[in-house]
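W.,

You were right to be curious about this one. When I first looked at the sequence I had no strong expectations either way, so I just let the prediction run and decided to look at it fresh. Below is the sequence, 675 residues in total, followed by the output.
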Amino acid sequence: MKKQTYLFFILSFLLFGCSDKKKNFSGSQNSDSLDIYLAKANEDTVDIENRIDYNNKALTILTSQENDSLNRENLFLVANRFYNMSRLEEYLKVTKIIYKNSIAVNDNQNIAKTYSYLGDYYINTPKKDSAFYYYTNAEKIYKKLNDKNNLGVTYVNMAIVQNYVSDFSGSEHSAVLALDALRGTDVKIKIYEAYNILGVTSYGLKNYEKAIEYHTKALNLATENSLTTYEASSLNNLGNVYQEQNKYKLSISKFNDALKYKGLFQESPQLYATLIDNLAYSKFKLQKFSQLPDLFYQSLKIRDSLKLKPAVAYTKNHLSEFYVAKNDTITAKKFAKEALELSRAVKSNPDILMSLKQMGIVDPKNASFYSTEYIKITDSLQQAERKSKDKFARISFETDEYIIQNDKLAEQNRKIIFASALVVLFGILIFTIKNQKAKTKQLLLKQAQQKANEDIYNLMLFQQQKIEEGRADEKGRIAQELHDGILSRLFGARLNLDSLNKRQDDDAIASRNNYLEQLKNIEQDIREISHDLSREKKELNNNFIGIVNNLIEQQENLFPPKVDFNVNLDIEWGKVSNTIKINLYRILQEALQNINKYAKAENIKIQIAENEETLSMIISDDGIGFVANKKIKGIGLQNMISRTQSCNGKIDIQSKPNDGTIITINLPIEHNNLT
């Protein structure tokens, strides 16, 4: 029966050892008086009756307000304060109000929270099955909301309830689910409790090595997060496991380590009394009587002052065992009888069984009577535990069934909505397909038209080149004739006339000078004509630049931005393939179109240059720019990139919002195969 008592104290610490688990402080409220009442109700320094009065005043204000999220939040604060003051009936009343308000507005988060609060209420009553029922309802909602923190907390609470009825396997399962839900969260205390419960369930299943493993994990977590009281509790739990294994030296070591924590008595006198009692019992088992029975009496005094009647009965049974060992039968019988009476008064079955067993030892004449009652209560407890386990399983099943029914109704509604949506989508799909077919036809037509335009442009460019080449050849021939024929003869005539200088008469001299001057003028005119024809021949190769100039003229005539166009006149366009010229022209055309549509630019700068075997074109503007590194680009930019890549070139687009745009295209020069 020591094991059942051990479980009782562990669970009591989890539930009552931290009575301020719901403590929090109100933030700014709409009403100053409400804020004051809530704050005063939460002050430990204020008298308990006044705190209750302040909390009731806050409740009165809140019940007259509109049912909104802030109102429900403040009602939770009121419920928390009643819980911390151990006013469980008022706590239940407020929780039911919140539940009703949350249902009215379909607030699932707070519905789940009220289920959890109702579970907290019933876990403090004999109706553990009701606590499990409400925790199960909270679990289902938190699952749907994917609220990991609250789901983990709920699993911890379910595990505690299952431990109460010795459903160790169920408790272990819930605790494992809690750890899984809380993995990666910062709810350290609940993670600690999950490990602690796993230690308790392993102890209940007599798997002591696992119990030590889980209690050690809980201890490490408490140490890492400076949770002093929880550290002491885990050391106490480890001591209990070692005590159960009859490893009393190890248990004494753990109990002493826990008692070293400063302020433990002030922080948790209940735990402090438990540690002293456990230490005394381990010393008793090792027959180290130097501090005995003083330690037992010290623990008894603290427990009696705290009105912890089951714990008082527990210590009195230990004292009875001690005095049996000292052969003081009268005192031993006295403490055993007091423990039995107290256990029956508070209906603490674990302590009743422990007391009956001890009474059988100290009162052997009536041992059979105590033994019969012991067996009867044990059988009754086992049946109750089995019923509770079955009831918990049924609650889980029925809750799941209820949820399944709701899910079926929801599924039917979804099917109706889906069918309606399917009909609408089918109509939209038909329309989209027809519309897409029309767009596809238009796109194919545009592509065919674009291809035809490119072919026509290519042919025009080729024909223009041929015409210009013919004109250039003819002009070159004329220039050569002028230079080599006429100019030579005229030069000869000038020499002949120059020989007339031997005549010295005035008329001859005047005539000769006149002819010579005319010949010089003719010679100079012929030279200029020849040079002009040669320059024009070179410039005739620049018919591509003429086309570009036409594009720029159209741009300046139709759109506001000023265009600064610079081109390297040394580029031999005749040697550049028509494919490159076409794509360069189209890229420029597309860039100008994008600037006109989107850039809101005032100035455009276009530069075309040649660097070794590479043609480069830089188009920049001072417009509003755009995010250049976006994965999805417009059709215009995609076309520019595609044209550049088709010429084995590289394109670089630099732009930022409100910082203009610079597009740089570098194309390797491919020589024109056309003659």
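Here's what jumped out at me. The radius of gyration is 50 Å. And, maybe more interesting for your project: DSSP finds 24 helices and five strands in the chain.

Coffee later to discuss?

I.
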